[in-house]
Amino acid sequence: MADQISLPTPILYQNLTKTLTLLDIPMSIANAQGTIHHPCTDQIYASPPLRMPYPSTEPKTEKAKVNVLRTKASSDTDAEFPQALLWRGLGEVTEHWHLEGCWCLPRKMSPLIRGRHSKKRKADNDINQASVLQKRDSDHASNALLPPSKAETEEELGILPSRTEPDLKIPETETSSRSIREPLVLSSESSPKAYTCSGIRVIANRLVGNPYSTPLSLQCAGVNYKIPPNARFLLSEIGEATAPAFSMAALTTYPGASATAGQGQFDFVLLDPPWENRSVRRSARYNTMHDSDPMLVLRAMLGQHIAPGALVACWITNKASVRDTALEAFQAWDVQLVEEWAWLKTTAGGLPISQIDGLWRKPFEVLLLGRKGSDEAQKSEGEFRRRVIVAVPDLHSRKPHLKILIERFLPGNYRALEIFARNLTAEWSSWGDEVLKHNWEGHWYTHKASKRSIL
According to the UniProt record, where is the region Disordered (predicted)? Predict the structure, then answer.
């Protein structure tokens, strides 16, 4: 019989072979902010879980379908993931997960957060607006798992304050700078730990680290960010000018060798590149890869920072050309593909958010997982594996956090790096120009001592 893991772990259901997992996305992010000794007790604000699949945009006749296939550019050819595996996964979760209509944990609804309107993704704005329109429905879904206290009910139904998301834009004088700055250790003698700096310039383009095994509050120009235990980050664009700063940061973080990794090397590297896509406009500052391609820079320099035998994971879109580009990078890093994971997006009731075999919108995203080493080393991996993560989507840009799923494949005291990160992770290194985005305190709800915590 498969394991059904008690709440509130992010893993709601997992089969015995661990090839199928029902995961809660907001909880996976919160879980990754803490450690065994200092778990995160805060809850990240989320969008309401989808109640119904998206309206179909698929051609309604065979003739229309043929026309669509004829007009789609060759570069739009889809990279397929076995549909039978996705359907089988849905069926298995339906059979074993008995909380009907609740394929995710209760969510703390996001306050109205005013984003920076210049080039901000429309999808994020749409979801924030939907937070208001769907609040009653999502409150009802939450009640099925955990009835809120009176105080929490009053708070949820009240008018939440509108807050402006802080501008993390790195000054242009810094983005083009090739200078390598001294690391910044966020030292603090206070309890709880806190560090104050005057602005983004202080923390941009340099290695910044929380040296403590407890969380730390970073106040930057009056804005508070939650820095997880022993987390390190490089807040910079990913490009040719900043590559030397990253290499120096890696060497500074790991000046010596471990049992599995050399100087400045990592046992696990996770990438979520801003691929160009019809429906995915990942970041205005990256401008997607149509205008600039940070993957070209990474392809040239990242390999030296990947330890022998290390795992490399890369999220891709469903375009075959994107898959090919990712695999070309793997080849440049001497990384061989060993597994392929699919994140299948469902409604709160367990329906795919769109047709699995749809032409326009796929209800899944794919993660390529490779291991660095010779062909001989790959033989120990056995046959190529595919795994399915089933999860109800959160905000448009948020992926399931993989920490709780990937750690069992990694050595003890492993070294991990996330590139294009949009939040920090306890004990990991993160690199990107939005690494602090979801660590802003405005994205988090802190349970007061007088309230019942659901975490």
Answer: 115-155, 165-184
Between CA 211 and CA 201 the distance in angstroms is 21
Answer yes or no: are the C-beta atoms of 42 and 23 closer than 8 Å: no
Beta-strand pair 20-23/385-391? parallel
pLDDT above 90: residue 85 = yes
Q: How many CA atoms lie within 13 A of 115 on its CB side?
A: 19
Contact 207, 246 (CB under 8 A): no
Integer Cα distance of 452 and 150 in angstroms: 10
Q: To which residue do tokens 């210049």 refer?
A: 118
Question: Rounded to 5 degrees, what angle do the CA atoms 146, 149, 150 make?
Answer: 140
The H-or-E segment that residue 329 falls in is helix 320-332
Give the span between the Cα atoms of 347 and 343, in whole angstroms: 13
Strand partners for 314: 271, 368
Under 8 Å between Cβ of 28 and 401: yes
What tens digit of pLDDT does each residue of 368-392 get? 999 999 564 455 555 689 999 999 9
Q: What is the average pLDDT score of the chain?
A: 82
Residues 6+ apart with CB under 8 A from 278: none
